[in-house]
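Open question from group meeting: does this chain pack into something compact, or does most of it stay loose? Before anyone orders reagents, we agreed to write out a predicted structure and look at it together. Recording both the input and the output here so the notebook holds the full record.
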Amino acid sequence: MLENIRRSLKRQRPADPPALEARLASPPEGPIPARGQIPRAQRIELFLDMARRAAATVARLDNLDDVPGAVADYLAGENLPARLKLAPDARLQGLPWGSRPLIEISAGRSHGDDAVSLCHAEAGIAETGTLMLASGPESPTTLNFLPDTEIVLLPADAVVGGMEEAWRILRGRFPGQSLPRTVNLVTGPSRSADIGLKLQLGAHGPRRLHILLVGE
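Structure tokens returned:
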């Protein structure tokens, strides 16, 4: 597609491909706002505060073994069905779901009939309370948009100050030029005030966003 655009504009390919390749391999980092340059404990608290201000809910867990219980408690507390669509991610499927046998677990992409999904975030951005979610075979993007409720697991050590640091984490997980086709930056539940300036949650995606912060 880009080649067709370049051809229609009568532009040639970059004159210095090695320089372009070098830039892609070692991209320069932009400035990190002072708001994100704070000690680790404060950074995590800032992320939690900003996420809550954006209407997300948060549960803090000591370790990954606590995730099934936290999911069960959230589903019961919100009067949601005990059914969960997991991203087919080994980091999620390896959790001790057998400790909560009443939850019906399935994995894969959503076709629009799943009430609740569970995904794994690549990073959390403290400056804005934003989650970074990557697309791929192990993390279908449909799970970020189609279910009415999205639960996201976020390791505490993946909470960074600013967006530049989040991209660094993503490049480390996907080295070289193998970055995901889509990266979703999610700040709170989906919302819109386009009609009559009246805020509506769930306008373009989940109306509930629940974050499980694990560690620290």
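Observations to bring back to the group:
The domain at 40-214 is CATH 3.40.50.10420 (Rossmann fold).
The chain has one domain: 40-214.
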